[in-house]
Design brief:
single chain, 150 residues, mainly alpha, 8 helices, globular
Amino acid sequence: MTTTPVARIILAPRERQVLECLADGSMLAAVALNLQIREGTAAGYLKLAKRKLYGVSETAAALAVGYATEAIDRPKLLDPESLYLPREQRDLVPLIAWGMATELKRGGDTIRRDGRELLATLQARHRAHAIARVWEYQILTADQVIAWLR
């Protein structure tokens, strides 16, 4: 499957670093500490990156768009057969990636439970980390993300 080209997005080095650290599962405070900047400064870099990445509002969506547009380095791919995701969890992946999990026709408690189970299955610390993990397992692809951007 070939990826339809989209405009190349150039992030500032600190914007890239903040996103890539979040993708590794770090919380924003830990990212700031690691980069030796204030947490508010890290949040500012994240906000700028989101604006450049098609104006997304969610960090998970920023990672998905960043990977799809190659604005940040894509993670190493893993064998998708080595991870089993039930349909309920798999249905959440694109919605979490785009920050729209409430679009499912399920109750809020059910969505939250499925989301927690998805994070546990992926061994992810938060939604942005989950996006990095599903990208590794090739559950979320550049073609899917680029289709949302069009």
